[in-house]
Amino acid sequence: CRENILKTAKALVEDTKLLVSGAASSQDKLAQAAQSSANTITQLAEVVKLGAASLGSDDPETQVVLINAIKDVAKALSDLIGATKGAASKPADDPSMYQLKGAAKVMVTNVTSLLKTVKAVEDEATRGTRALEATIEYIKQELTVFQSSEVPEKASSPEESIRMTKGITMATAKAVAAGNSCRQEDVIATANLSRKAVADMLTACKQASYHPDVSEEVRERALRFGTECTLGYLELLEHVLLV
Q1: 231: Cα separation from own chain's centroid
Q2: Could you check whether 1-122 and 125-242 share the same CATH topology?
Q3: CA dist., res. 226 & res. 243, Å (int)
Q4: pLDDT digits (tens, 9 = 90+) for 63-118
Q5: In Å, how far from its chain's centre is CA 192?
Q6: 96 neighbors 83 (Cβ within 8 angstroms)
Q7: In the CATH scheme, what is the code of domain 1-122?
Q8: Confidence label for 25 from pLDDT (cuts 50, 70 and 90)
Q9: Which of 33, 40, 85, 168 has the most crowded Cβ, counting Cβ within 10 A?
Q10: Domain at 125-242, CATH class
């Protein structure tokens, strides 16, 4: 399946270029670029799923790594289309144009990450380290979203935020164990668990910080500690990767 994935990913990169340039062109060209990218990401998802299936059910953690990689690309494409919509017909120095360039950069980063993951899947000696690298990049992107001024769609209770920190504790123990064992399968499992644990914590923390009963001072503290927790966890993963 590898050749099909590479070919389809290359087509998606071309669609990305058309999307970015489409912001400064006609609505028709922009619509065509958006439709083309939507079709290509659907095709890419299918070939990646076939690739994951071809690994066999004996290696579910590596299958999850591949599925996570295509999910990251799809999310980046969705953000890019949103940024393109916001930048359409705007002057070159408009802030929305900078957001568009940033979204395009994330998109290319995630496609590159997918291709590296696909290549690493065939080499058992690098599967774990590649999964960890992809997770570190994913967490950094999630942290950027967390630190943005965007208000979450819904608020949640502080208790929910506290509950989500338990996942960080479990993932930390798993990361330490993986660093001690250095087994590729342990490192892959750590990478997959870490993605979910940190993403869930960041979402719950931001939603809780915007609870109606939370003051501005407490909100700032909660957001600061959410950031510090994530940076500390990233440092831990970097150490595991080094080991």
Answers
A1: 16
A2: yes
A3: 26
A4: 999 999 999 999 999 999 989 888 887 877 788 888 888 999 999 999 999 999 99
A5: 12
A6: yes
A7: 1.20.1420.10
A8: confident
A9: 33
A10: mainly alpha
